[in-house]
Amino acid sequence: MKRFLLLFAALLAGFGLAASAFAQVAPTVSVLSVVPSRVYVAADRAGTFTVTWQVRSSNGTWVRSTDGSFEPSLGTVPMTLYQGTTAGATVMFTENVRVPLAVIQKALVAAGGRSSFTYRRNFSDNLEASGFGEATVVLTGAQAAGLTATRQAIAFDDNTPVRIVAPRLLLGAWSEITLSGSGLVEGVWEIAEPPSTSGQAVFRTLRVVRQFAQGGGLRLDSPALPTAAPGLHLLRLRLTQPLPGFEAPEIRYFVAQPGATPVARELRALSPLPGALLEEGTRFTWAPLEGVQSWLLVLYERPAGLAGNLPELGAAPLPDAAELAQLAKAVPTAGIVVPGGQSGVALSAMARSRLKPGSAYLWRVLGVGKDAVVLGESPWRVIRVP
To answer: Are residues 112 and 174 in the same domain?
Structure first.
């Protein structure tokens, strides 16, 4: 019996050692570094910054962070970071963080005016271990915040956002970027070509851009655009430095099928009525047409002397032969491309910004089929901008 008790005590002692050893190797998740640990954004506008997290899980097979947060309680960034790993290995996550203006304003009014706050991420693994890291966000003046992009415009070389071109026609575009601060601007001219543009567009690189800028406006010209393949093409200049707080705007062009000259059918426009005033919620609608893959809504400013004054009642006169002859040589003031399955659209904010108050415009809709063949076109109608 004494020997049994001694053996039992030894087992208990061994179990205690094992438990102690187990406690020493309990799963952990550690944020080893946050680079940079301090970032700067302008206090008067939305900003962006890039941060890299270096994380290690002692025993896990994956590491994840479901969202980031601006602290104290200023807002969240609902973007998940995830990587598989092995026990004890280090993984790195790099993310581009957009700081909304609302978050900055909350920080400024908190506690009598807060000049900094933190961006925090909590990381966990499959064994439920967790850890966190933080970067300090410092609010500063626009110049001290470094180079930022506040606006970007893009158009073809005739200053229009939409084109229908003949095969192998020489075509170019430009993009103008409004900047604050000074530094190196980097970006990529990208094109999406048929057949990907009929579904999920796939972009490829046309040219990499690197140019030093000192604030104000910077205009960048595209390389010659491909016009050999018939169909819809999408073009954009995507900024990579500085990272903007907005999506890169896109413009579109159609390359027509070689030798395709079908007679376009008349398309029935439904609204707005001739001579109507353009309001914020005005929708342009038209009757469907078989075979159309895209609709092109275009607006032209009426030549001087033909627009007249805004009437209180009644419709504006339709264009005569002389005005149509001038329109044949003009380029659209604004244009929108609509998928073939739709039969109406309201003007986007960008399109509306091209229209001058107190002016009259002529508009029409073109139905574009396969290989950019124009299948239908509506009669001209007048719309007025109050």
So the answer is: no
Provide the pairing of β-strand 62-65 with 116-125.
Answer: antiparallel
Q: How far is CA 54 from CA 32, 80, 123, 127, 323, in A?
A: 5, 15, 11, 19, 65
pTM: 0.48
| Structural domain contains residue 6 | no
The residue from 255, 289, 315 where one domain ends is 255
- Residue scoring higher pLDDT (225 or 313): 225
Q: How many domains does the chain have?
A: 3
Q: Spell out the long-range contacts of 12-21 with Cβ–Cβ below 8 A and sequence spacing 24 or more.
A: none
Domain residues for the domain of 66 are 29-140
Predicted confidence (pLDDT) per residue in 165-183, tens digit: 778 888 999 999 988 777 7
User: Does residue 230 fall inside a structural domain?
Assistant: yes
Tell me the pLDDT tens digit for each residue of 292-341.
888 888 888 876 544 444 433 344 556 666 666 566 556 678 888 888 88
CA neighbor of 95 nearest in space, from 123, 71, 114? 123
Question: CA–CA separation, 95 vs 200, rounded Å?
Answer: 24
Pairing type for strands 269-271 and 130-140 reads: unpaired
Specify whether 135 is located in the same domain as 182.
no
Give Cα separations from 322 to 31, 315, 334 (angstroms). 72, 20, 22
